[in-house]
Amino acid sequence: MNNNTKLQDFLGGMRAISPLIAAVIPIGLVFGAVAATKGLSPAEAGLMSALVFAGGSQFVAMDIWTHPASWTGVGFAALLVNIRHVLMSASLGTRMGGFRQPARYLSMLFLADEIWAMAEFRAKVARLTPAWFAGLVAPFYLAWVFSGLAGAALGAFLGDPVVLGLDFTFPAVFIVLVMGFWKGAETGAVLLASGVAAVATQHFVPGVWYIAAGAVAGLAAATLTGKSQDVEVTP
């Protein structure tokens, strides 16, 4: 692949992720504002976004943040929130035939839900290349880090994110991503199982176990629906 083709792929990845960048900036601002209320400086909030790069686990960490912070508690909560990345990596890894091994491992370090979804969509219609994937990652990563930094610096001026409606940005992004994978009743069954398990677990079990419960229930539902379809088409 020549340099011109790589540049075109990179720009193509940037164009694909641009609508989600517009959505992730408000989320980053909210995270920064929340981090500021917990006593983190703008530099600390920005560094957390740069090193962790996982919105869900960062918000959970802020929710249980104390002074001094319980690193064991924060780390375990982050593990539960991000355990889904194991499945995402396994799925996307099968699409990375054009990646060298080091590039494949490096790419997984920048795997966010939005990046994974866009890469999966791309792999359905065209070959997934390292340059195109880098085009997804670079602007999205920078937007997340700098919006968190700005949110922490402007935290006092942003006010209550609920009043501004920024709290709905997070679920809105995931609704859009889920609809992109919609396959009818099969997807509905997976979402229903995951949602019921998550809500029930959150009600009865303290902590963030509801995230893992929703993931396991959704995976089980997907497995069962897939097997039932195989049975139906078997002559």
Describe the structure.
This protein is mostly helical and 235 residues long. The protein folds into two domains: 3-168, no CATH class; 182-228. The protein is built from 13 helices and no strands. Helix 2 (42-52) runs antiparallel to helix 8 (130-153) and helix 5 (84-93) packs parallel to helix 7. The longest helix is centred in the first third of the chain and has 35 residues, at 3-37. The radius of gyration is 19 Å and the shape is globular. It starts with a helix and ends with a helix.
Report the uncertain regions: 230-235
Largest sheet: none
Distance between the termini: 45 Å
Number of helices: 13
- Whole-number tally of structural domains: 2
Helical coverage, percent range: over 70%
Q: Which structural class matches the secondary elements? A: mainly alpha
Please outline the helices and strands.
Blueprint: H1 3-37, H2 42-52, H3 55-63, H4 71-82, H5 84-93, H6 101-109, H7 113-125, H8 130-153, H9 155-158, H10 161-164, H11 169-180, H12 185-204, H13 209-233
Give a concise summary.
It contains 13 helices and no strands. By secondary structure, the chain is an all-alpha fold. The termini are far apart.
